[in-house]
Amino acid sequence: MTRSRLVVLAGCAALATTALVTPAAGADATALGRVYVQANYAGSNGTWVEVCDMERDGNGVYGLFWVNGGSKPTELWDGSGSSGGCGNATYGSVQKFRVCEDVVGLDICSSEARP
Fold first, then answer.
1. Are 109 and 98 within 8 A, CB to CB?
2. Range 41-69 average pLDDT
3. pLDDT by residue (tens digit) across 22-46?
4. Structural domain range at position 61
5. Structural contact between residues 97 and 65, judged by C-beta atoms closer than 8 angstroms
6. Is 15 exposed, middle or buried (0-12, 13-18, 19+ CB in 10 A)?
7. How far apart, in Å, are the Cα atoms of 32 and each of 18, 28, 66, 76, 93?
8. Do the domain assignments include residue 90?
9. pTM for this structure?
């Protein structure tokens, strides 16, 4: 194989590798962690957090965020419900988080995740 073909093949391999690790257009490159309860979710990139109620079932949705090594979580609700928009805030340093659906009797919560 000639030297020019090797250079072209090496360039194609580098381009293919880049395409595999680069997020698709419109993807949120900062969304490092997300957990779900059915269609509802909470996410964090380590400082910014979001909680979204995606179901029209009358149940509220909130996230629990352990911030700056605290022993108790900070609670954030999606105040608009499923009507649009999400609850979000910026904290110093999120260590772990989960999402919960406020159901009469017993809330349903996801497992904990890290940003």
1. yes
2. 95
3. 333 333 434 469 999 999 999 999 9
4. 30-109
5. yes
6. exposed
7. 19, 9, 16, 18, 14
8. yes
9. 0.71
Q: What is the total count of domains within the chain?
A: 1
**In-domain check, residue 22:** no
Type of residue found at 109: C
* 23 assigned to some structural domain: no
Q: Is residue 114 part of a domain?
A: no
Nearest Cα to 34, choosing from 86, 92, 104, 102? 86
- Report how far residue 110's alpha carbon sits from residue 115's, in angstroms, rounded to the nearest whole number: 14
Q: Which amino acid is at 53?
A: D
Rounded distance, CA 109 to CA 21, Å? 31
Rounded to whole angstroms, how far apart are CA atoms 110 and 91?
21
